């Protein structure tokens, strides 16, 4: 690819082998027109979207057997899109979203690489309303709580795009900001079911990973 190097990774989810194009390493950077900079993506952050993260794998594994029914699903910060690819393989009604200028390109390539139809993708900045995106029954994300203020931004996205009887599922690697999200969503009527999980088979860090499953107006959730 012009300006940056890529490689392929393979990961098994639910008996399926997914081949993913990712950035070669975290030092890759290519922003010739300053698009990323205008979006607030620094050179140090630029390559993060293009990595296969343990929390992303945790979310993808959760999506392999999650009850999707007829739910409309939104993935926030999809990056290379593994969780959305798992949902696409299952025939889910899923929209992948990210703010990185190259996320759509990588997502389309990875869908084709795995013999899947192109996913529905939308560029989404959490602090900018996008009314035409509509509302969803399930909103998912992984490793999105880098800073404490991200929880409030995520709460705003839920306000704008979650149905009254919605679910939110966040795969969190234990960065320490989950409590902020818990308070944000509790204030919006969500109950929490937290499950600690192994991150990518890493037994050393197995207690750090968790799935945060928030429900509102559903059994187990707060009405």
From TrEMBL:
InterPro entries found in the cross-reference section: Methyltransf_16, SAM-dependent_MTases_sf
One Gene Ontology term of the biological-process aspect is: methylation
Does this UniProt record's set of keywords contain Transferase? yes
Which key words tag this protein in UniProt?
Answer: Methyltransferase, Transferase
Q: Which protein, by its recorded name, is this?
A: Methyltransferase type 12
The UniProt record lists the keyword Transferase: yes
**What organism does this protein naturally occur in?**
Pseudoxanthomonas suwonensis (strain 11-1)
Any GO MF annotation of the entry: methyltransferase activity
Pfam families in the cross-refs: Methyltransf_16 (PF10294)
């Amino acid at each position: 690819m012009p300006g940056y190097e890529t490689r392929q990774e393979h990961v098994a989810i639910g008996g399926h082998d997914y081949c993913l194009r990712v950035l070669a390493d975290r030092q890759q950077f290519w922003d010739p027109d300053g698009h990323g900079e205008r979006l607030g993506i620094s050179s140090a952050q630029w390559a993060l979207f293009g990595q296969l993260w343990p929390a992303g794998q945790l979310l993808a594994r959760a999506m392999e057997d999650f009850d999707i029914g007829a739910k409309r699903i939104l993935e926030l910060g999809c990056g290379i899109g593994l969780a959305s690819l798992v949902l696409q393989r299952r025939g889910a009604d899923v929209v992948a979203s990210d703010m990185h200028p190259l996320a759509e390109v990588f997502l389309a390539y990875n869908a084709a690489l795995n013999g899947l139809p192109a996913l529905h993708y939308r560029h989404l900045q959490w602090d900018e309303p996008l009314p035409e995106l509509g509302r969803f029954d399930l909103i998912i994300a992984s490793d999105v709580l880098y800073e404490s203020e991200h929880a409030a931004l995520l709460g705003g996205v839920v306000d704008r795009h979650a149905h009254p009887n919605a679910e939110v599922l966040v795969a969190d690697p234990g960065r320490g900001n989950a409590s902020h999200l818990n308070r944000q969503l509790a204030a919006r009527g969500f109950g929490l079911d937290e499950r600690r999980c192994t991150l990518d088979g890493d037994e050393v860090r197995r207690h750090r990973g968790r799935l945060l499953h928030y429900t509102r107006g559903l059994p187990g959730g707060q009405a």
